[in-house]
Specification:
With 122 residues, this protein is of the alpha+beta class. The protein has one domain: Alpha-Beta Complex (Ribosomal Protein L22, Chain A). The protein is 32% helix and 37% strand. The protein has 3 helices and 3 strands. It has a 3-stranded antiparallel beta sheet with strand order 1-3-2. A hairpin with a 5-residue loop joins β2 and β3. α2 runs antiparallel to α3. The longest helix has 19 residues.
Length: 122
């Protein structure tokens, strides 16, 4: 089987967290090996780290099952966040007024890449 692309992608849509909070966690794991990224996410104090780790695990499973990549050579090439839908709610205020509340959703994209191990000639 010919491997023409060394990148694997996993997308988690409609995560209930603002993109600004989520991008802090994604920047934290960018460039790390996949198993180290999962370990760091497990001990992160952020609530949203569980959803990010689910997405990383999904990308690892995609690499293993669909492309037969070696899990030990995978690293997080890209981890970025985009905006998704925004729930709009209203809060009652004084004198019959209402103020809007925006509850944003996000979209997590994790791109893994396999590092080629160079063989040394003896």
């Amino acid at each position: 089987m010919q491997k023409n692309s060394l990148t694997i992608k996993a997308v988690n849509k409609n995560v209930r967290c603002s993109p600004r909070k989520l991008s802090l966690v994604c920047n934290f794991i960018k460039g790390k090996k996949a198993d180290l990224a999962l370990r760091d996410l497990e001990f992160s104090r952020k609530r949203i780290a569980k959803d990010v780790s689910k997405t990383v695990k999904s990308a690892i499973a995609n690499a293993e099952n669909n492309n037969q990549y070696d899990i030990d050579n995978l690293f997080v090439k890209e981890a970025y966040v985009g905006k998704s839908l925004v729930m709009k709610r209203f809060r009652p205020r004084a004198k019959g007024r209402a103020s809007p509340i925006k509850k944003p959703f996000s979209r997590i994209t994790i791109v893994l890449e396999e590092k080629k191990m160079k063989k040394e000639n003896k």
